[in-house]
Specification:
This protein is mainly α. Helix content is 70%, strand content 0%. Helix 3 crosses helix 8 and helix 7 packs antiparallel against helix 8. The radius of gyration is 19 Å and the shape is flat. It has 8 helices and no strands.
Length: 182
């Protein structure tokens, strides 16, 4: 991420070997793990916000270049992605709970996932095992405070902090839809 931020200030970023190395790293990240899709999305969004149109386009097409062979290969072998199935399952660990097929079930899933992975997860990172887990309202309030302070710090830390901010928001969006807590 840092190399893209630095390269974004150059008009001739495509001449740098760091650009090509970073594009290859993005391709590997996306093909290794599905959540890697957040990395090019955050870089493209940040480049667009900074009005670096050519960098945004180069990252987007670089990502497509490295993800296309994998997608074509999966299609030829009849492999389908599991992410849509996971997103529409109420609980991937217990298939008997059924599918998320109504707005009410989506809201329940989003609330549970936001609590488990974002709010409580943020507290676990900052204060590992040092808070009363049994008090749900306490976890919501102090988790929200930790998140607000962290995100405010990222935004205030300049353009690179905003890039990390976009990356974290993208991860949270995926966690809200796909993850079913621990």
């Amino acid at each position: 991420m840092r190399s893209f931020f630095i390269l974004g200030d150059r008009q001739d970023f495509w001449r740098s070997p760091h650009f090509y190395f970073a594009i290859i790293a993005i391709g590997i990240a996306c093909n290794t793990r599905g959540i890697g899709i957040v990395l090019p999305a955050a870089i493209v969004a940040n480049s667009l916000l900074r009005k670096k149109w050519s960098l945004a386009g180069a990252v987007f097409f670089g990502f497509l270049t490295f993800s296309a062979p994998w997608t074509i290969r999966n299609g030829q072998h009849g492999l389908k992605g599991r992410y849509l199935e996971t997103a529409t399952t109420s609980n991937p660990w217990d298939q008997d709970e059924g599918k998320v097929d109504s707005m009410e079930k989506w809201m329940v899933k989003l609330k549970k996932n936001s609590f488990d992975t974002i709010v409580r997860g943020s507290l676990e990172v900052v204060f590992p095992y040092q808070y009363p887990k049994n008090f749900t309202s306490w976890v919501w309030v102090f988790g929200a405070i930790v998140i607000i302070i962290s995100l405010f710090g990222l935004i205030q830390s300049g353009p690179f902090g905003r890039l990390l901010f976009l990356y974290i928001l993208g991860n949270w969006a995926i966690f809200l839809v796909l993850h079913e807590g621990n």
